[in-house]
Amino acid sequence: MYWILVTGATGYIGSHTCILLLKSGYNIVILDNFSNSSPKVIDNIIKVSNLNSKEISRRIKVFEIDICNHNSLDNMFSSMIKSRKKINAVIHFAGLKSVADSVEQPYKYWETNVLGGINLIQTMESYNCKTFVFSSSATVYGPTSKIPIKESDLIKPCSPYGSTKASFENFLADISGCTETLKCSIPSNKEWRIARLRYFNPVGAHSSGNLGELPKGKPNNLFPLIAEVCSGEREILEIFGNDWPTKDGTGVRDYIHVMDLAEAHLLTLSKLFISDPQILTLNLGTGIGTSVLELIKTFELETGRKVPYKISERRRGDLSISIADPINALKYLNWKAKFGIKEMCRDGWRWKQSQAQNNI
Ligand code: NAD
Ligand code: UDP
Q1: How far apart are CA 317 and CA 93, in angstroms?
Q2: Minimum-distance ligand to the CA of 41?
Q3: How many angstroms does the Cα of residue 8 sit away from the middle of ligand 1?
Q4: Which is more confidently placed, 72 or 215?
Q5: How far is 294 from 330, CA to CA, in rounded Å?
Q6: Residues 17-33, mean pLDDT to the nearest whole number
Q7: pLDDT of residue 360
Q8: How many whole angstroms from 84 Cα to the centroid of ligand 2?
Q9: Annotated catalytic residue, options 12, 26, 109, 161
Q10: 33 C-beta closer than 6 A to ligand 1
Q11: Where are the beta strands (DSSP E) in 117-217?
């Protein structure tokens, strides 16, 4: 069976994708430096996947590696080959993801998100592994009044984080030999099969309550902050502005359940494996916009708890509205998000409660 290298596998989206990879019969190589996750997540992946000890040693390999270290990547590929396990594809989640931190530390973001990615691609090339799925982001688009956002819309990132994602996307287009980057699927003349997946706002958790977002440090995003206020860890939620040109004045986003996102990765892999060399660029969102107030209301309904909030100033650099046009994901992958805001809140809350119970 195929071996899939998952970089950033113990992170939020990577860990949920590992569950579906294992369930679909793939073997996985877990690669992470644990800078924003914990090795304990591997236990959670195993628990949710229901693997016995024989299957664990046969189907999962773990490497603690920093993608910025070229030699370590090379050693990892070579040790897999020595044990007669060829890596057939890479899903590349490893990276730094905070817009605010990227403004403070642009060097670190460029080093990890761009140089680290180039290291990985070079290593893959030297082991003739040329199927690659990249975690890109809706932050590559500039502020736009055209909603929903299409893949062909203007790429104009507004932060160092967004710039690193857009630049690495361009690098991938260059190595695949595709100069035209606007169409969704373009034939590649360099044998590479590449997908650039632009996520909108991933939230929620695995429905078992045994896997969810577990970042180090204080969250900046709305969903984990609402969960913290709901659980009493935080007193009050600040809403960043209620004077945006939106349905109720608060910011609107396209929230997508993390398990829907994980499923899109599985379908992308299957698609790339059976296709000619190409580069595929897809938005992954639901196409539905939810305001801050609507998300709070749904959280309250699902949990039976109040989410106290106050209105504050707008956050610097915020967009009023961001919604994906997901039609190409339907066309190329036959993928469509199954879960709505209710399920996202329900599963996110179950994870929050199980963290409290198990002292995670
Ligand atoms: P995450 O921080 O939970 O996971 C990333 C993982 O990468 C972590 O486990 C971290 O320890 C690891 N990592 C970081 N630097 C590394 C390095 N140098 N070497 C090896 N491992 C390293 O983030 P996530 O939410 O799972 O996001 C995964 C990817 O998706 C990221 O590339 C992110 O930019 C992108 N993305 C995330 C979102 C989101 O809102 N979560 C939205 C759009 C795009
Ligand atoms: N938001 C908020 N209070 C917070 C965090 C976020 O009102 O403490 C708003 C933010 O202004 C935006 C929405 O929630 O309108 C989603 O923000 P998030 O940071 O989760 O995602 P992003 O802005 O990166 O898409």
Answers
A1: 24
A2: 1
A3: 6
A4: 72
A5: 26
A6: 98
A7: 64
A8: 46
A9: 161
A10: yes
A11: 131-137, 185-187, 193-199, 201-203
CA distance 189 to 175: 9
Whether residue 127 lies in the annotated active site? no
According to DSSP, the residues that pair with 155 across neighbouring strands are: 141
For residue 9, report the phi and psi dihedrals to the nearest 5 degrees: -70, -25
Tens-digit pLDDT profile for residues 89-140: 999 999 999 998 999 999 999 999 999 999 999 999 999 999 999 999 999 9
- Angstrom CA distances, 47 to 63, 122, 209, 230, stand at 19, 34, 11, 27
Alpha helices by DSSP H, listed for 181-291, are 222-230, 258-274
Q: Which residues line ligand 2 (CB under 6 A)?
A: 201, 220-222, 225, 238-240, 251, 253, 292, 315, 318, 322
Nearest partner of 255 among 340, 176, 162, judged by Cα:
340
User: pLDDT tens digits, residue range 207-219?
Assistant: 999 999 987 888 8
The whole-angstrom distance between residue 60's C-alpha and the CA centroid of its chain comes to 21
Alpha-carbon span 282 to 333, nearest angstrom: 9
The first and second tokens of residue 48, run together, are 């949710």
- Dig out the tokens for 28 from the structure: 């996985």
Residue 237's contacts (CB-CB under 8 Å, 6 or more residues apart) are 225, 226, 229, 296, 307, 308, 309, 310
Buried b (16+ CB within 10 A) or exposed e, 205-216: bbbbbbbbbbee
The pair of three-digit structure tokens given for residue 202, joined into one six-digit string: 């991933």
Would you say the CB of residue 164 lies under 6 angstroms from ligand 1? no
Query: What tens digit of pLDDT does each residue of 247-264 get?
Result: 999 999 999 999 999 999
The residue nearest atom 15 of ligand 1, judged by CA position, is 95
Which ligand neighbours the alpha carbon of 215 most closely?
Answer: 1
Give residue for tokens 């196409």: 287
- Residue (of 200, 254, 233) closest to 352 by Cα position: 233
